Amino acid sequence: MLPLRVTGAMVRRRGKTLLGPIDLELAGTGLTVVIGPNGSGKTTLLRVMHGIERLTAGQIAWAVPMAEARQRQAYVFQQPTMLRRSVADNLAFPLRLSGQPQAQARETAAEWACRIGLGDALDRPALRLSGGERQKLALARALIRSPKVLFLDEPCANLDGRATRDIEALLVEVRDTGTRIVLATHDMGQARRLATEGVFLRSGQVWESGTTLLTAPQTPELAAFLKGDIVL
Amino acid sequence: MTDILDGFTAAFYLLIGLDSDLIEISLRSLHVSLTALLFACAIAFPLGTYLAVQRFRHRRTVISVLNALMGLPPVVVGLIVYVFLSRSGPLGVLGLLFTPTAMIIAQVIIITPLIASITHQAMRDLWADYHDLLISLNATKRQRIATLIIDGRRNLLTAALAGFGRAIGEVGAIMIVGGNIDHATRVLTTAIALETGKGDFALALGLGFVLIALALLVNLSIHWLSRTESDGLW
Ligand SMILES: Nc1ncnc2c1ncn2[C@@H]1O[C@H](COP(=O)(O)OP(=O)(O)O)[C@@H](O)[C@H]1O
Ligand SMILES: [Mg+2]
User: Fold this and answer.
1) N or C: which end of chain B has fewer CB within 10 A?
2) Do B234 and A77 touch (CB under 8 A)?
3) CB pair distance less than 8 Å for B139 and A97
């Protein structure tokens, strides 16, 4: 279904330009990090690429028809939604939406629960989980339909080291088995550990992008941002 | 004072003796209000959910009207239904006036806005919570509504119980359209009004106990449901 082509994409709300115009292409394999100061448009860009943000101008196009592309991608929100159901039913939910029978969906859900260390919490209400467990559940729920492309919006914000390490391990595994990942993060350590390429956003614009983004910044703004200076 | 004490004693014996009048009236009350509840829920659940999920031109107006209808005085509803069902009214030929059916119609009109309004509020909050996930997972419109109804079922039950509580304790409308006819349209509330007027405290109190028990049951259930809700269960 790749490449994804974003051409002239622009998002305006109440007369303010939040994003764009943006032109970029997502192709091949690997993990693209989206970095930039708060409010620079990382979330908005991810939502645009995922196709859930209304565009004011421009368009996005996959190599396959939109309906098919929508089925084969997943998104982990910064504050993941926990359905008022058990852990098992949360995991099984996407499969049930695609019409899988209950028994089969529950079996796959149980396998995934084990993979994320929630094997003994299958029947626990998802709303009773801790922050880290919720993020892992959301990640597993996103991966359960084996998406070709996965978007993640700051999946490790507010998480402790252990939960972060678990999530990164899973992401590396998924990345190396061919799932194309786009990850917004403000954790530069995480960006360095996971990225194969990157996009640096500044006030809704792609300021710099490429495979050497983190190692050899071309613009003074990115260099300052990577050093930890305050960039607006 | 002795009157009242005698009344309590007599009411107690009517209750444990399963007095036939008392049972008949209680069952009719349940029949009328539960039937009304069934129809009201069938209208109000989909309506409330639809209003929460779907944006359309006059959505805000519809919601305001719904909230205004919630405050309709039952007596006025009774009067309007009476006018429609009376022999010279537009639906007079159906001959429904002074039948349980007329009472059910009046109660449906009284409780539907209440149930729809509670449903709408609960579903709106749930939709705000679920919106992004359901859109992202590419759920169809039908799947979205089904998910909301399944996961909001406790809220729906609360709404239904509130509707039932209002229906079973309502007297103004069903008095007018039912006529409180013995062995035909007499229910708990109308019978209490009548027996109290006649000075027969025993039956009135006995009926009153049944009504209080039902109301308590409903309110305890609502309380229990909303507590488990805020517990973070579902
Ligand atoms: N629905 C919206 N209406 C108006 N402004 C918004 C909306 N969503 C986001 N914004 C604004 O758009 C800008 C970019 O937001 P966002 O994409 O969330 O940035 P980031 O994720 O990089 O912090 C911010 O200034 C934010 O306040
Ligand atoms: Mg963000």
Assistant:
1) N
2) no
3) yes
* A125–B136 C-beta distance less than 8 A: no
Torsion of CA B39, B44, B46, B52, to 10 degrees: 180
DSSP B186-211: --HHHHHHHHHHHT-HHHHHHHHHHH
Using a 6 Å CB cutoff, which residues line ligand 1?
Answer: A 13, 18, 36, 38-44
pLDDT tens for B111-169 read: 999 999 999 999 999 999 999 999 999 999 889 989 999 999 889 998 999 999 999 99
Domains contained in chain B, CATH given: 2-233 (1.10.3720.10)
How much is the pTM?
A: 0.83
A100–B contact, CB cutoff 8 A: no
ipTM of the complex: 0.92
H helical segments located in B20-99: 20-53, 59-70, 74-85
Domain A4-82+146-227 maps to which CATH number in 3.40.50.300, 3.10.180.10, 3.30.450.20, 3.40.50.2300?
Answer: 3.40.50.300
Closest ligand 1 atom, residue A18 Cα: 12
